[in-house]
Every structure is written in C-alpha cells, then in structure tokens.
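worker-03 picked up job from queue 'complexes'. Input manifest follows; two sequence lines, order preserved.
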Amino acid sequence: MNQSPSLNSFRGGPDEDGRFGIYGGRFVAETLMPLILELQEKWDEAKDDPEFQKELASLGAHYIGRPSPLYFAERLTEHLGGAKIYFKREELNHTGSHKINNCIGQILLAKRMGKTRIIAETGAGQHGVASATVAARFGLPCVVYMGATDVERQAPNVFRMKLLGAEVKPVTAGHGTLKDAMNEALRDWVTNVEDTYYLIGTAAGPHPYPEMVRDFQAVIGREAREQILAAEGRLPDVVIAAVGGGSNAIGIFHPFLDDKEVRIVGVEAGGKGLDGEEHCASITAGSPGVLHGNRTYLLQDGDGQIKEGHSISAGLDYPGIGPEHSWLNDVGRAEYVPIMDHEALEAFQLLTRIEGIIPALEPSHALAEVIKRAPKMGKDEIILMNLSGRGDKDIFTVGKILGMEL
Amino acid sequence: MTARMDRRFADLAAEGRPALVTYFMGGDPDYASSLAIMKALPKAGSDVIELGMPFSDPMADGPAIQLAGQRALRAGQTLAKTLQMARDFRLEDADTPIVLMGYYNPIYIYGVDRFLNDALEAGIDGLIVVDLPPEMDDELCVPAVERGINFIRLATPTTDAKRLPRVLENTSGFVYYVSMNGITGSALPDPSLVGAAVRRIKEHTTLPVCVGFGVKTAEHARAIGASADGVVVGSAIVNQIASSLTADGAATEATVAGVEALVRSLASGVRSAKLAAAE
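worker-03 finished. Artifact:
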C-alpha cells in the first residue's frame, strides 16, 4: 500500500490518485469518471489562481462573516474547573454552521466549470441550507436530496431550503437518512452529467472531494491557530471536533497536524451505545470498506452490506467517515472517541444555560468530550473546540426528548 | 475460463446474430426461485448470464434493481450464496458464460484472493464491478485477469475518445456499452446513436460490444441488436420477477414462468437481428 504522502508531514495528502494511505481513491461508475477528472483539473487550476482565492476570501469576509470569533468560554471553564476552553465559533457564520465555507468554494468552482444546475445531499439540513443559499446567491437552480426521516426531524431546515428556492426531494430508500440521500444524489449526477455540479457537503466521496472540501474548511483551523496564538501566545494542548463525515473536524484539525504537541481528538456519534446497532461510530466500531467513491471506515456487516447507524443528531447519522480521518486514525496522529446520545444532550443543555449559546447537536458531541476531559487537565492547559453549528434547528428534537411543549 | 466466453461469442458470430445477455439479481426473491430462474434462462434463449450480487447501496441502479437487491438481502442472500448459486447452475450447464455483476465492497470484505479462487471454482467467467473504474484496476481487475477471469468494463456516452483506450486497456470478454448516462431501468436510447457509439468503440477494440440500458421488448432487442454484438436486458427481467410476487414478496408459479416467457420473446428479437458489425 501507499506510503504516507510525506514522511515529514501529516498535511501532504492525498497522493495523486487521491489516496491517504490505503484510504480515499476514486470508486465510481465509469459515467462519472470523466467528470471527476475534469473537476480535479479545474480544482487544481482554481486553487493556484489568485483571482479565485481573492473572490473566495472576499465572499468569506463579506458574505459568510469570516473570520469567525475565537471565544474563551469563561464560565464553562470555571464550571469544569480544569483546562481553559476556547470555542471556534463557526455557528456564527451565515446559515449557522461551517457548511457555508465549503459551499461558497464549490459554487465558485461550479461557475468556473460552466455548470448550470446544483445538486446536493443533506442530513441535518445544514449543508442543504448552505447549498440552497449559495445557489440563490449565484442564481442557479438547486435540488437537495434529503432522507425522508431527516425531512421529518429537521423541518425548520426543510422550510429554509424551500424559501431559498431549492427543491427538496425526500428519499425513502433504506432508512431515509444521509447515506440514502447521497446514493440518490449520485444517481441524479450519473443521469445529468452534462449540466450538473454535485456539491458534496463533507470531506468524503471520490477524489478530489475529500481534499477539496478539506481545503475549503481548513480556513477554520488557519484562523483558529492565529487567534489562539494571539490570545494565549501558544498552541492549544487539545483540539476537539465532532465527526460525521468529518468536514468541520478536518477543517480545524488540518492546520494543526504538524504541531506534534497538539493532541487531535475526533468525536463520533456513539448513539445508544456501541454494543448494539444504533450508533454511527465508524472508526471506533467499524472496519475499512468502499462506499460512495472512497475507501474508509464503514459500519457494515460480515457480507460487506452497509448498516444504517443511528445518532440523535442527523448530521452525524452517516455510516462512514472522510478518508483522511481513517488515515489519521491508523497512523496514530488523531484519536477518535464515541459520545452517546444522552451525553450530547446533557452537553447541549449545559452550554445553553452556562454560556447562553445553543449549540447544534453535532458539536454537542464534541462538547461532551470537552466536559469529560477538561476537569482532568491542568488550569494552564488549553482545549480548542470547534463549535461547528448552532442549535436552532434542533430545538424541536430536543424539546420532544425532554418532553417540553413547543 | 475465458475460453467459455470467447467460444460463445465466436459461435454467435458464426451464426450471424447478436447475443442475448440477461441480468437477474441473485437471491431475488429467494435462493431456490432465483436458481430456478437462472437455470431457465439458457433454455429460454439467453446466451450469457449476468448474475447480480446484491448490495445495500447500489448507487448506479434505478428503483427496479434497488428493490430486487433489497428483496434478495432480506431473503438472506450473501456473496457466498451467490457463488453457490453459480456452482449449482454449473452442475447442469457447462457452456453458458456467467458474469457476476455488482459493487466492490462485498468482494473487498470477502477478500479479493478468496473471492477469485471461489469464483473460478464456481465456474464464473467474468466480472462487472460498477464502482471500479480503470483508475482502480489494481484492486480487482488486474488480479482477476491474471487468474483468467474476464473483467468487463462499462463504456458510456461520457467515455470520450481520449478516455476510451484507458477503459479498454485491461478489459476482456466483451465491452458493455451503457447506451445512456443514467441509472439502470431508464428509457430506450435512440438506436441510430447506439450504432454510431458501437462503431466508435470498435475502432479501438476487437472485443464484442454488448449494449444495455433500456431494452424491454423483443422489438427493442431487435433494434439494438442490429448494431451490436449483444443486447443486455436487466431491469425488464427484474420487473417481470417483481410483478409476479405476492404482496409480501414471495415467489408464485408465475415467477419463473414469467421470466421464461419474457426471455423467449427477447430471444426471438435478437434472432431476427442481423449481426451488423460483422468481424
């Protein structure tokens, strides 16, 4: 199998075939190959084009609201009595999560490629909203595939997408969640290759998506690295982020990968526990396989059939993970831990009460890990957490579980 | 093993007609019925059998084949059982080539070496693995070809002249031309466009070119067969099976009989088509 892209760096991947070690690659139908090769060519041109980078930065500043703040969570730090806790506030971005960073980048690329129709898949609806938003901003029609189960549990985001002019297509195949939405989006793409751009929302899929999405999201880590140096004069001891497909996580992790003293922790959805079937902990409880264009850790049975998984958070409800995370796990640069539904729910409530921030259920998983670790760390130590999305979309889900009338 | 496939196409070329290539999903709606369907296919006039390996996430398939895969998985079909089905079939038919068709992950999990050994021993002649393009040839294609199992590649309308040689590089057995962009079970393409595409592919290869996607009737089979070395029928057969099942998905007397009747009709279609691109 392939060596790591550079012996001296964890940041050099993927190789020219899109591999991170044995992970990644281009496992797609022949119909899509010419498109994926064209996408790679256009992406390679764009990323070295100062004009492209200038437009990306300008939209980042004036449309998304970058840089997002780095916030010292003083009361949470006091409450936990250990390490200093900083949040990278991606939930303050336009549309309420980190997803917009990637969408702005990819739609600029779609325009560059002359594509006239955007399709996207969505789980929690954050990527769907971000896709619908940039499609509206650039005047392109947009179709969002969303699992029927998710359409039901993320009603506010469905409404937002429709307001933004996107067509939301519920997918009933399988369990009607993110994986099924991605299958359906791929089917659309295979059928409409000429005019359609597939705006993948996470750092997974066939090469070059994992690399490209990472690069668009790495703005999170680049800013956070500068901001923490300015605030504390040093790097954090631990960086923590929730991982579904893993785009917010790879975005904040990547610029820290070569800082050997910084521990990197990805938090997977432990659902109702790893003993049963109801979780989405691909690395902790899965095994390597091939799905949706890449080799990566997957939840699957002994016959290679993909399992459905479960998480309280629709955004983590995916039986795979971005290939770079699989590689970072195997080479030991990052560790991946599970957090259960109930732990995330408790963290959600704690942050709401103690800092006046309603986090999305996805970063609530990262937060639950912070809550576990911080008290065991010294007061002079620093945790940086990616607060990747806001919880407005989740209040109905949480209200239902807590038995509150809405 | 390659010999069986080459012999079949050589015989058909001598006969002057295209091959009828029939697809069905292994284990749909249950093992015994599916094996009975497989055995019925050559008797009804099928020249090459594509045996579908069910996968939970068939990204390139339309609703008909998605549902067939779900029925098969629900009935307990696994890759091991699909190989067993081929073995059982070979007890009575030593001549009809069998091509396994599906997605890579179940093979990857089974283990590539073990899979190729078992496939050879089960009498498999070729593989079509939808999500392994030429860029991924090291995974399965190269080891399969080394062992003497054909690796049949899909060419599509997006496969341009620049890409075609790459697509054909390690392919053998036949070339499967997917006559339109899209998922399985879509509408019939324009036969004249198909003819032009087949001629374009034949400029680059001496392999037979079989055309699929959208063929449902004897008339379609005749029209497409006029300009190709073979006609692939999949969704129509799978739909025929689906329509014969009880409300809870169980096989009926019409399940095997319905497929037999459909394939017999399709076979009359290919038999009335002239082999256009005679070698």
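worker-03 released lock.
Chain A has a mean pLDDT of 94.
Residues 123 and 178 of chain A are 5 Å apart (CA to CA).
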